[in-house]
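Example (one chain per record):
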Amino acid sequence: DDWLNAGGWDEETAYGWTERLDDVTMGRPVEGYRITAFNSGLWYLQATAGGLRMMNLLAHRMETEDTWDQTAFSQEATLGTHDDWLNAGTTVRVMNHLCFCNTKTLLRGIRPNASLASHRPVVVHVNYHQSKQAHMVDINDRYHNGVADALERTAKHEPRSTRPIAQVEAPFWSELNDGFVTGAHVQPSVGIVAQHGCSPVPPRNAFLKRSLRLLPPACDDEGAEQAALCAKLSEVARAGEVGLVLVTRGNAHALPLFAEAARLAGVHNVLLL
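Predicted structure:
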């Protein structure tokens, strides 16, 4: 459903990575999972049921919350359904960070790499650097006007490599860890448990109207005649549809059998004549 452009600059920061969240009082670490934010300035959304749910959900959050659109977008693309909140339930693909890149990737990753000298990104998101216009001019000259050294005009003092996230955060790691993993932000869950216990909670954003994508029963779970028809329907159906079925007085008695076999085969749209 969603094609996302990451704010990362290597495999881990673009696609996600695991790390340790230490609590020395417990005697052992726990594994955490992190990603950089997905850029809300560049993404592609398929016209699917999940895509529509994502748009409705983001519109609702923009109207009712004081939050950054990119924060809400990244959360709804990755957070699971929890407590009284339904997520959009979309499938997600992160675009290649060298093809749909940001300026940190371009100037510190692509520019110094000789093996990428002829590489041409599809899109460059000018987001890491404040002098946006100057960098946009240089990028345009490099990839559209053929000026080979255009990127050096504003990037000549730019580092020619990126550092692992562990090195970037090492000087203030404890501050970061204590800042977003404190163990103190539990009020929403406490409120849910106090009101509902551990029973299922009615969603407060039920306008999404999500349903489980249940698989139909296997054809061979039924009688032989019905199973044979079910298997044939599964074979000929395209996208869960059968275009045309001719019904006469001579075979009308088989309609109930056909309808049940269609249901078991996951065929939903049938035209009867």
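Caption: DSSP finds eleven helices and nine strands in the chain.
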